Amino acid sequence: MASILSFIHQHIELIYIVILSVFLGIEVISRVPSVLHTPLMSGANAIHGVVIIGAIIVMGEADADNYLALILGFLAVILGTLNVVGGFVVTDRMLEMFKSKK
Amino acid sequence: MSISVLSVIYLLGSVTFIIGLKMLSHPATARKGNLIAAGGMTLAILGTIFLYHNNGERLHNYGWIFAGLIIGGIIGVMAAKKVKMTAMPEMVSLFNGTGGACAALISIVEFGHMTSIPSKGNFNLTDAISAMAGAAPGPAGGKLLIILLGLIIGSVSFAGSIIAWGKLNGRIKDFSFRNQHIVNLLVLGLSLLTAIYLVATIDNHVQMKLTLLPDPKLQIVTAPIVKILFYLVLLLSITYGVLFVMPIGGADMPVVISLLNSFTGVAAACGGFLYNNQVMLTGGILVGSAGTILTILMCKAMNRSLRNVLIGSFGGAKAG
Lengths: 102, 320
Prior knowledge:
The complex is a heterodimer of chains A (about 100) and B (about 325).
Chain A lengths: L1 H9 L1 H17 L8 H11 L4 H10 L5 H35 L1
Helix pairs in contact in A: 3-5, 4-5
Chain B lengths: L1 H23 L5 H22 L1 E2 L2 E2 L3 H21 L5 H28 L9 H8 L7 H29 L11 H26 E6 L5 E6 L1 H22 L7 H22 L3 H24 L4 H6 L9
Antiparallel strand pairs in B: 1-2, 3-4
Keywords (chain A): Cell inner membrane, Cell membrane, Membrane, NAD, NADP, Translocase, Transmembrane, Transmembrane helix
EC number (chain A): 7.1.1.1
Enzyme class (chain A): translocase
């Protein structure tokens, strides 16, 4: 218990960021027209690909003799990149389609 | 110096994500918004690769990192360019699944670091003595809590997204059995309880061991039960992800994908806590909250409630 409290104390600034971001996220997209639901979902999908940064750090800090960490980290980098690159390209294609319709 | 440049890059990245989401919600600016967010992401990735360091230690394994980026990038672009317009939602689901898997893998590796890698470099006798006296030098419980959260949410999102992908392209049929919602809740509950037990008892199970000969070394010794339970949590979470999406009908899939999308956002934010990394945190939480609201909006557009979508199809007990 004490260790959890001290963890919260150590990360209090991050916790403030979390709370403010929650409200910001709600506010930012609250008036989206329904035609944009799918592209927005896809765009948000690409943005959470930011998890790739964690994968890069894991990979970059793995010791050269720790094969499990190397392999899992390598997989994580590939999967994360797929999420980011694929996500943004698919979103762009969806929105391109919107334009040609009009 | 480089770490302060990196902070500014992360700040810029976070701002581009907010602006990107904002612009994505207006038809006229949507495409530009997507590009702005992509630009911010590229900046954050390159910044991490070249500027990140932890206690003065830079990243290594550059070969692996670039190989991963190139392989992932090429497959990503090819898949995204080739997919038919009608198959885009399932593609989004697949990419969402890879993000969830990435978050879960990060948790697995970090758990390994926490429980078995001998700590080296910053060897400190005071830490070692206080560890021997029973007071762990770091807040192990809090860190493990974040690792487990990332693991559970990431693997539920991964398994669920893969099932959703399979359903949308017709490879997986609807499947449900009697009282499935009870089984589902049991699986989820068991996974969460195991995780809570791990967090509560980690300080008793993980001990620092000091060896002075032949050279002074501080090692982490973990009871095997901790590892077994950790992988049990992983297994249960994946099972829950599969069971959770299985009974939901194909027409409701976009709503489910949007929900899983916001899950992955939260899993990414757990990484932000783990590495004290603001861009992962803001990006993840923004997607988590915006994704949840978007899920509710999508339900409304279909004239249904989220409750209805998630449990309406169970057991056929629901009328209308």
